[in-house]
Amino acid sequence: MSFLDPSKSIITCVASDCTGCPVKDSVHCHFRPKELIHFLLISFPGFLVGGAGIVTFGIWSLTIWISIIIGFFGFLEIRVMCTHCPHYAENGKTLGCWANHGSPKLWKYRPGPMSAFENLLFFGGLSVVWGYPLPFLCIGEQWFLLTLYLVINAAFFMTLKLFLCSQCINFACPLNSVDGATRDMFFQRNPSVAKHWDKPTQN
């Protein structure tokens, strides 16, 4: 589950290395353990709080949620969203990105935008994952945990959008917030990706 060699360009890039790349400081083509640690630190607290509220109803209720989480992030999200990412084209049987590091690559790389149905599955899955604890917290009248759960997850998504999604090369992801100019510069160096987005590239 190693990360990509930062001295080499990603597999979809036409450049031999990252020297002089106009987007190397704007998007994360390569990831280091610190990005993975950052993601885990902002994402785990919400799951811990949600799990603390669910487990009061029994271990099976928590087991179901854990199964949903694994099913979504380990399989469904990989299929509908991650297979569109240039990182998915890299050699190896597992992903080396910050959000799904180590997840198995069971499907083929599919560059280009997500379909409307894939977007529906993606947001539907997210709603189930993060919505599952809410009935338990409300029925159990665990108002402190409910408030904490909502605040922590709101902070998580804000941090995600501002600091990680704003530098991610998976432009297909609905949460991606890389600006248009940066995307175009990335497409110039990654023509095999650009053609699936109907973007012009350098000759």
Structure description:
The protein has helices spanning 33-54, 59-80, 116-131, 133-139, 143-164, 180-189, 191-194. With 203 residues, it is mainly alpha-helical. The protein has a domain at 33-155. It is elongated and about 55 Å long.
SSE layout:
Layout: H1 33-54, H2 59-80, H3 116-131, H4 133-139, H5 143-164, H6 180-189, H7 191-194
Describe the structure in brief:
With about 200 residues, this protein is an all-alpha fold. The protein has 7 helices and no strands. Helix 1 packs parallel to helix 4 (about 135-140) and helix 1 (about 35-55) packs antiparallel against helix 5.
Which structural traits does this protein have?
elongated, mainly alpha, 7 helices, about 200 residues
Which percent bin holds the helix content? 40-55%
Task: Report Rg.
Answer: 19 Å
Discrete helix count = 7
Give the CA-based shape: elongated
Please outline the major beta sheet. none
Structural class by helix and strand composition: mainly alpha
**How far apart are the first and last residues' alpha carbons, in Å?**
36 Å
User: Regions with pLDDT < 50 over 5+ consecutive residues?
Assistant: none
Structure summary, number of beta strands: 0
In sequence order, what are the helices and strands, one letter per element? Answer: HHHHHHH
Summarize model confidence as the mean pLDDT.
Answer: 91
Q: Beta-strand percentage?
A: under 5%
